[in-house]
Design brief:
Elements lengths: L4 H13 L17 H12 L2 H14 L3 H29 L4 H29 L1 H4 L7 H18 L5 H13 L2 H7 L5 H18 L8 H29 L1
Length: 245
């Protein structure tokens, strides 16, 4: 039996009463998500943790040598940690844990972004023959990790102090290594890598839109999850499945 207008009205009225967004923050006050935004922030990354664990296990199982295992472990762990740390931070924020606890997970969440960027490059840098044998890209594996270390140190010292600069550093850490790699070598999977990069860049717009777009941070989370999925399948297909054949 189809619901009538009278039975639907209380639901629509309740939906309208949900506060989807608070006012935008400023340089002195951090943005305070609404309860629904907190829940969406938790779900959009929390639901990706188990698939990330499974993906890391699949890469290890598909590995044929130590180099592949090493890349799979580093990449898989970072994949799990980026979503786990994000979920834990948003959980502590939602349940309003002690300020020190929230700050710990917030710092960990932000630091994991730099680590995840480096780890996303890592399988390509040590498994792709084209990259490993090119004079320009030969030593990039440690350069991306140097970027990550510098980024984490900066972030821990100036946590939330220069927000626009911090966002710019995330973008530069992701883009700068890609430019010489793309110019120097032609690798299979390049289109997927570009697509993932574009998704991350589009997501940054929502990352900076709290208080301007409802559930903006959760939308950013969704872009991150899809971009990570695109990059994962590129790694799996071109560096493990194709390498096996």
């Amino acid at each position: 039996m189809w619901p009538n207008a009278a039975s639907i009205q209380p639901l629509t009225s309740r939906f309208k009463r949900i506060r989807w967004m608070n006012s935008a923050s400023n340089s002195k006050v951090r943005y305070d998500p609404t309860p629904i935004e907190h829940i969406m922030n938790i779900l959009t990354h929390g639901l990706v943790i188990v698939p990330s664990i499974y993906g890391g296990i699949v890469l290890v199982q598909q590995s044929q040598n130590f180099r592949q295992i090493f890349a799979a472990v580093i990449y898989g762990i970072s994949l799990v940690f980026i979503f786990t740390m994000s979920t834990l931070f948003h959980l502590t924020a939602y349940f309003n844990y002690d300020k020190k606890v929230k700050d710990f997970f917030h710092r960990g969440d932000r630091a994991m972004i730099y680590i995840f960027i480096a780890a996303s490059y890592f399988p390509w840098l040590i498994l792709s023959p084209a990259i490993r044998t090119n004079e320009i890209t030969l030593h990039f594996w440690w350069i991306v990790w140097l970027f990550a270390v510098v980024g984490v140190i900066y972030q821990q010292i100036f946590h939330e102090k220069y927000k626009k600069l911090e966002t710019l550093l995330y973008v530069l850490s992701g883009l700068l290594p890609a430019i010489p790699i793309v110019r120097a070598v032609r690798i299979a999977g390049l289109e997927e890598l570009k697509l993932g990069g574009v998704l991350y860049l589009f997501g940054v717009f929502f990352f900076k839109s709290d208080g301007k777009i409802p559930c903006a941070h959760a939308i950013w989370h969704t872009f991150v999850a899809f971009a990570a999925a695109v990059h994962f399948f590129a790694v799996y297909h071109y560096l493990y499945l194709v390498a096996e054949t």
